[in-house]
Specification:
This protein is an all-alpha fold and about 280 residues long. It has 10 helices and no strands. The radius of gyration is 22 Å and the shape is elongated.
Length: about 280
């Protein structure tokens, strides 16, 4: 009974794999030309945005010149509310199919994959907040007091009442910063690596399960994916070759994502052969 159920879940894996491929190929489209250079080594605007660690890295989104790029990224962000359900659901369903076949270690993979969905949504929310701050900054002509026009900070624009119940960290920041962008970029750094950390974790776990199942060839793509994500983290945190590492990582993830439908087909065909 569980074997039969696993076949249906493998089928769900294949369906979600098709959707995972369809989203970037059919919906995201080609980005406009950046109005300002991306970070060194970056070629893809969404990656340059996602892996930004300083406000300066967002120069290609700033001002009127960056309006077209912001519009494009808002479109991508809207679609990205559905994309995690496809790619993480694909991974979760594959792990669940393995669990139904008696490999209960695969349940760990189910949890890691499903946790990626809200993590990706949180990253999207932070990225949208950054776009909002760029387009409608807290400190603008209407909120900056005339006497502070040349040397204003957030506290001047927000007013004392708005900060009455603020956290100590925000209270201190209101004296030092003239924008929420530095805080939001730091939040993005955290949210981004929670998401990618979960993806690296279930990639590594998938590789372990394949090795334990004596399927070393299938273990190669998830192993490389986990290693490339680790290398990308080091590059971004040290500021050394971040763009190159991120772009290479995005390419390495393609065969990793394809591993799920390929392995699902292999398990299904293997079951049919045993029945004969």
């Amino acid at each position: 009974m569980r074997i039969k159920a696993s076949l249906w879940v493998f089928g769900l894996t294949l369906l979600l794999a098709v959707l995972t491929l369809a989203f970037p190929l059919a919906l995201f489209g080609s980005p406009p030309e950046p109005a300002a250079p991306l970070q060194d080594g970056f070629k893809t605007p969404i990656l340059a945005f996602e892996f930004a660690t300083r406000v300066e890295h967002l120069a290609f989104l700033q001002g009127e010149a960056g309006a077209e790029m912001r519009t494009y990224l808002r479109h991508v962000q809207f679609l990205d509310w559905f994309f995690p359900v496809a790619y993480a659901g694909m991974a979760a369903s594959f792990f669940m199919a393995l669990a139904l076949r008696g490999n209960f270690l695969a349940l760990i993979g189910v949890g890691l994959a499903l946790a990626t969905i809200p993590a990706d949504w949180q990253e999207n929310a932070t990225m949208n907040a950054i776009l909002d701050e760029i387009e409608n900054p807290v400190c603008n002509e209407a909120t900056i007091p005339p006497e502070r026009a040349g040397d204003y900070v957030l506290r001047d624009c927000l007013g004392e009442d708005a900060l009455a119940e603020a956290s100590p960290a925000l209270d201190i920041a209101s004296f030092a910063l003239d924008s929420f962008l530095p805080l939001r970029v730091e939040m993005l750094r955290i949210d981004t690596w929670i998401k990618w950390g979960l993806i690296a974790a279930y990639a590594g776990w998938l590789a372990i399960l394949f090795f334990l199942a004596k399927r070393p060839i299938l273990a190669i793509p998830p192993t490389l994916a986990a290693l490339s994500l680790g290398a990308c983290w080091v590059a971004v945190m040290t500021g050394t070759g971040a763009g190159i590492a991120a772009e290479l990582m995005s390419l390495v993830l393609i065969p990793f994502m394809l591993t799920f439908p390929v392995a699902a087909v292999m398990y299904v065909l293997g079951h049919k052969k045993r029945r004969r």
